[in-house]
Every structure is written in structure tokens, then in C-alpha cells.
Amino acid sequence: MRVLDCDEWRTLGQLYAFFGNSLLSPMNRTESVGLDPAFWRDLAGLLGGAIARPAQHCAAWAEQAAAACSRDELVQRVSVEFTHLFVGPPSPAAPPWESANGPVESHVGFGEATYQMRERLRAVGLAQCGSSNQFEDHMGIELLYLSELCRCIADVQASMCDSADAQVKELERFVREHPLCWIGRFCDKVAASRPDGYFVHVLDCVRALFEWQVA
Hints:
Elements: H1 6-22, H2 37-44, H3 52-68, H4 71-86, H5 112-123, H6 139-159, H7 165-177, H8 179-193, H9 199-214
Helix pairs in contact: 1-6, 2-3, 3-9, 6-7, 8-9
């Protein structure tokens, strides 16, 4: 079981939230901090270097990309990549749902994992809103769920009124049984479609964070 203090749990939750939001909306609708090499170098030093290597790769990608075009052009390029990979048309090149990344090849984004995630979100008081109307087993939503679990663990530890061990074990079990089980297939689809793009590097960070979480 990963032993962290409450500040480290909050940092971990912020990382999960950043990556989750990055996979849910294109960059031209959100912040473009992921294009700053310094941002990735800062992330490389967090949590004892949990994602140091892939974060440094993100920094190198950002430097090379910035040398090739303007910031506005790069935001647009990453946003187009997002749409191609995760939206379509006619269908996403890398479907971002757990239901679509099982052992059997499928583009279906609604299955048992969707129902399970819907119940998990309800249990922690989370609900989908906005116009995206994504299936609940979207990688971005699973990351936001993990962010909320980290926040709850940090709050329990800060209160010093109870032990958060059971919540930590539940979080790690979720990582093992859900996103860590399918992120490999998801990454393979992203790499096959956009091997030199932004998201292949971002997802390397996410996978490294999952592996660190359960080590």
C-alpha cells in the first residue's frame, strides 16, 4: 500500500485531475499549460520523481513543437489531434472508454464497466454535467474519480480523526482492476495513429503514475 502524507495525496489528486481534464476536452477549450516545457519539468520532480522520465519526454516534445510553429498554431494542432483520436468523425481512432478497450477488439463505448463507473461516481457524490455526454468509463472520468478519492484520503489524514487505510486500499484496487488493466491497449491505439503527437506522451505519464501508485 502506497504511504503518502496528506500534501502528497493532494498533489497526486491534482495530477490525476490535470490528466483527466486533458483527455476530456480539446486544448482550444481549456488551458494550454501542457505546451510549456517548464510545466513538465516541474511535474517530473513531484512525488519523488514518480513520472520523471515520461514528463521529461513531454518537455522535450513541447520544446520541439514550439520551435516548429506558433503557440496558437500548436494549440490548434493538438486540438485537431484530440478530435481525431477521441471523437471522430466517423469514429475515434483511439476510443477512450474502458468498454472499448477490453481483450476483444471493439469500438463500443458502453458496457459493464460503464455501469460500474456510474455507480462509483454516485457513491462519491459525482455526476456528469456539461455537453460532452461521455460514457462514465472514459479514461478522463476514471482519472477525475481517482482525483476525488485522493482528495477524500487527504481530508481524512488531515483530520487525524480516522485512518484512511481502507480508502487507500480501495483506490489502489480500482487502479489495478480498471484503468491500469486497459491503458496499455488504449496507448497502443494512440501510438498507432499519432506516434509523434502530444497525447502519446501524456498517456505515458498517466500509465507511469498508475504503475507508481500500485508499486
